[in-house]
Amino acid sequence: MSATQRRSHYQVTFAVLAVSVSAFALLQSLVVPVLAEIQADLHTSQTTVTWVLTAYLLSASVCTPIVGRVGDKVGKERMLVVALAALSVGSLIAALSTSIGPMIVGRVIQGVGGGVLPLSFGIIRDEFPAKKVPSAVGAVASLSAVGAGLGLVLAGPIVRALDYHWLFWFPMIITAGAAAATVVFVPESPVRTPGRISVLPAVLLSSWLVCLLLALSQGSDWGWTSATVVGLLVATVVLAGAWVWVENRSVSPLIDMRMMRLPAVWTTNLVALLVGFAMYGSFAFLPQLSQTPTAAGYGFGASVTESGLILLPSSVTMFLAGMYSARAARRIGPKAVVVTGSLIAALSMGMVAFVHDHPWQLAVANAVMGAGIGLIFACLSNLIVAAVPAEQTGVASGMNANIRTVGGSIGAAVMATIVTASVFPNGLPHESGYTRGFATLMVVMLVCAAVALKIPAVGRRVIEEHLVGEPEHPQLGMVAGGTLVGDKSE
Fold this sequence. Notes:
2 domains; two-stranded antiparallel ribbon; 20 helices; mainly alpha; 75% helix; 490 residues
């Protein structure tokens, strides 16, 4: 099949990718509002039921960059089918579970689907017309954020109309259909990275990510100064150092450390960390704030469904802003868009911190937050895709998504520590805890804006012309700071 024939179907390919990414993103947050119900139904403890989230987070963090790298080497379409199949099988196991063990196993298998996002970016870069790449990448990136927010909104109505098992049945049906559609409609990308896949870097990467995320996710329960948490953090530092050392000396590295040191890459990754910190910290505690009984002197006593509706505006504005971001990036540059989005998000966090007396105020703040986050996510993805050679798109975007997840884990842990520092005898946090917590998120987004100012400027020519390799310039290796650099012949 010729390149022209392949690209004539890019809109169908985009539809399949959009459904795939949305399903994965939904699974990130659908279970958050109903953990208490799962705990009661499966007759388990609160500590154990948190592994329904933790297991998924750990698995996705380990698998996302690895699956992206394998896709770069053996074929993105092939690995996309594998990732979607894992989501479907994992969802089936979770849907059929009658005890906590199989539920956690299902969530671990679902985590393999984390590779959907970097694989989608790689397929877009390889298959879409050059001028369509920025908007398509931006839309898919926005869907990944929108899906996470929408999961919090949809959980209540689904559980109320059916039961929590349908939080897995629906994604299973969707991802199985997307896997079949991928086989039929998504062409195999011709861009491959030669060489074998190194096992040791993959093991070391997985090990330090597991240690870090396990410490962050369980620190509040085990105690931040406990021997277990401190040991995990020390192991993280040691294993991460060993991983970098091995990657720098590997003939076929899993992640090219030279690529990670590019100004356009490390600054974008740092922004992703801070955005993940603020977004997931906010998503984790906004429902709790709205569900707090009015007897506490604040909160609205909202149900799961009602708190979801308060969050709905952020999903809408996030998607709309993501769709607009490519046009804004062409006009003022992606760097300016990321800075603007960070300031907008900081404003929204300040609104929640200091103005949360009525539900409509939280809804407005959420709408503002969605606009800011939507602008940032779409541009971050485009900056990463533009900053690396085509054959490293999967691993680079996978690592960026991974860093965002790590930031989210840190954000949720820090917010939990701040919000619960002072509580009533009944266990409810004082209102001041939420004020301090969201004020902290505001400061984080202001720091994010300052970091975004360090992102190298990327011109319109690079955005529109060099997100995919040009046949007349096969020697160009990567794009950084608006300048094409890196000769593959070197």
